Amino acid sequence: MIFVKRKPGEVPKNLEKRFRDDRTEFDRAFAHYVTENKSGSYDFSRYSGADVKRALDDIFHGKCAYCESFYAKTQPVDVEHYRPKGEVEGAPDHRGYWWLAMNWENLVPSCIDCNRRRGQQTPNPDEDGSMVALNVRGDFARGKTFLSGKHAGFPLESNSPRAKWDAQGKAIDLDSEKRLLIDPTRDHPDDHLVFYVDRSSPEKLVSFVYPKPLSTNEALALPILGDPEKISANADRNSVSAIGAVSIQVYGLNRLSLVQARTKMLRDLEFLLEMSISLQSLHSEIDDRIADRKDRIESATGTAKADLKKDQTLDERISTRFTELTQKILIQMTDMTAPTAQFSALANAWLQSFVQN
Questions:
Q1: Which end of the chain, N or C, is surrounded by fewer C-beta atoms within 10 Å?
Q2: pTM for the full predicted model
Q3: How far apart are CA 97 and CA 152, in angstroms?
Q4: CB 197 within 8 Å of CB 353
Q5: pLDDT at 73 (0 to 100)
Q6: What are the residue boundaries of the structural domains of the chain, listed by start?
């Protein structure tokens, strides 16, 4: 997950477009929930318009706001409400944040797995939050199927008020909510999440995301499985970001398929690095051979000199090609850390680990 800044004045027109009765969708929803006080939920539609999807696709680079997967490759995008527009899980008397259903700042693009609630194979840490490996089948060494995906979830700290629409026609307590989910357009995910990259061996190069420790002395620990309140309490005991721990579980950021995809990218980066180092080593050998041959060309005559020049020309071409290939590999590795790339936060964590070592 990376921070994404919304552009001023980019609100898609569909969110404010009027119907034939000259009312906006907000006007209709207001009538449903407030003026007429109807039971049940209102059937919103304008938030999923084509211009909304295009605008979200633009600022999020075609990636899920939560897991950074390229959703367009395999599935349609869900236009996701950070604060749920309808029911709110764990708050049965709350009718949802309906007044934010068309609010541009409440909309993000999400892949199906991050947004829709379903069983996902998830790492199941020991009580100490220890790390979990992938076994020879590419499966979790310790894991269980656990329901994840945001759906109608919007957990708050236990002592937090929950915003609602009051009788005077305004939202109250919205700024007072103590949120337990990262909003990548408001929060910097790096403040709450951290990737651990162990480059000591291919088997240890597995991509889990952890809640960020609150101090440098704290060890990384996978969040426990359970309800948000339990996860938050455990995070507080372990001195790690509660928002990070809850977000990992609710969004399913360590679900098996995602861990496998990120792990593949890590190992691709290691392969590219190894290839680059090998090419540079061969390049150095060729350049040494070219430098050594220059003296022999100067002292040689006749056929011997012609043969040496021919070899020199060939080695110079090889040297140039090595330079070009090395540059292409480095450009590809750099591109993988760009905000437009899939899993760019992880790629940058790998780069930082490489620089530090």
A1: C
A2: 0.88
A3: 11
A4: yes
A5: 63
A6: 1-112, 258-356
